[in-house]
Amino acid sequence: MSAMSNCHAEFYQGTEGQLFRLTRTPSTINAHVIYIAPLFEQANQTRHMSTRSAINSYKQGVQSIVFDHFGTGDSAGELIDTTLMLWQQDIVVQIKAIKASSSKPLFLSVVLSAALLLNNEILSLVDGVLLAQPEFNGKSFTRQLKRMDIAGSLVKTHTSQNSEESFDSNYVDIAGYQFTQQLLDELTKQNINKLSESSIACSWFEWLNASNELAPSRIKQQQALQLIYRQTEFVMVEDVKYWQATEFQLAQQFLQKEQQAISKLLERHKAQGQE
Amino acid sequence: MNTAQTTSQLIRILVAIIPGYDDDFWTADTELFGAIAEFDSMAIVTLIGEIEDQFDIELDDDDISAENFATLSSLTELINERA
Fold first, then answer.
1. What is the per-residue pLDDT for A265?
2. Do residues A119 and A169 both lie within one domain?
3. Are A46 and A242 in contact (CB under 8 A)?
4. Which residues in chain A are contacts of B16 at CB distance < 8 A?
5. Do A31 and A155 have their domain in common?
6. Residue A2 lies in a domain
7. Which of A39, A52, A193, B40 has the highest Cβ tally under 10 A?
8. Which residue segment(s) compose the domain that A170 sits in?
């Protein structure tokens, strides 16, 4: 059986509109993984790896679900009409639908800025979380987003392109993404301290930098999460930061380690069930 | 960290972000902004994030200028000023 034979594309009802998802269902389902896409340009920069990861999960006997948030990708709606809460509610709806029809464990795969969508309700409903270089610092994320605008203006000036000014203070237009100031403010306010203590199992994949060290800002985030989620396992990855490169790259070591982490989560869940 | 070490670490970051060039392409004199097609706004912002993380410094928005990102040496100078 090929990896694509049970790949099903569909639109399903989200909170405010039809959302697009790709589901890969193995003949025997051991667990489910929902891939939460990161935000804005990061979604494009990580899609190829999410697809690889979802195919690997399928081969492991894990049903994988890759979907587009409201107002993004092939899903209905416009980015300008979305809020952080709407995106979070869409994730909750999807988790509850799976749990209503399956007793198998459900994990989340969370890459980069997708971590900003996590809240206590979402985490209380799942059995494990796979975090790949998660960004829990909303302020840092939106600062980088705003810099896109500055860098974009610089490039436009250099190439003599005209930039269109946005005159409505309720909306922002950054690097071609138009959304509300409210969404930007909501994302900026997101931080790890909003999450409550939990015994949920987390695997945190952290990419080492060029000097094989962890940046102080990353260590700070890891320490903060470990205080809340004591069952967090940190996995160091010495591989390409595939989301940064100007050409598509595959992080093979990460894919391998991710499969191992899923196996561990499955074993842990099985052991808990036998206690 | 001295200038040579800063430049060397900067080159490692750039090789990861813009992998399509041979290692010997990157020297202190390599021109960046306006000279390399891949050095677009996305690459600039990614580079800033990595510089802040790896050198443990914070750059101002005002630092995002054609002058500072003109060459590897001008960027090295900026990093050393902020360190």
1. 95
2. no
3. yes
4. 210, 240-241, 244-245
5. no
6. no
7. A39
8. 138-189
Query: Domain with B77 in it: what CATH number?
Result: 1.10.1200.10
Measured between beta carbons, which residues in chain A are less than 8 angstroms from residue B54?
209-211, 213, 215
Q: Please list every residue in chain B whose beta carbon sits closer than 8 Å to the beta carbon of residue A175.
A: 41-42
Find which of A147, A158, A237 to mutate to test the B interface (most B CBs within 10 Å of its CB). Answer: A147
* Tokens read off for A89: 């509610």
**Domain that residue B41 falls in:** 3-82
> Helix H segments across chain A?
41-59, 84-101, 120-125, 138-158, 181-189, 216-228, 252-274
| Total number of domains constituting chain B | 1
Task: Indicate if the pLDDT at residue B74 is higher than 70.
Answer: yes
| Residue of A100, A34, A98 lying closest to A67 (CA atoms) | A34
ipTM of the complex: 0.89
Residues of B in CB contact (< 8 Å) with A are 9, 12-13, 16-20, 33-34, 38, 40-46, 48-50, 52-54, 56, 61, 64-66, 69
Q: Please judge whether A158 and B66 are an interchain contact, meaning their C-beta atoms are less than 8 angstroms apart.
A: yes
pTM of this structure: 0.92
Residues of B in contact with A239 (CB under 8 A): none
Whole-number pLDDT of residue A3: 47
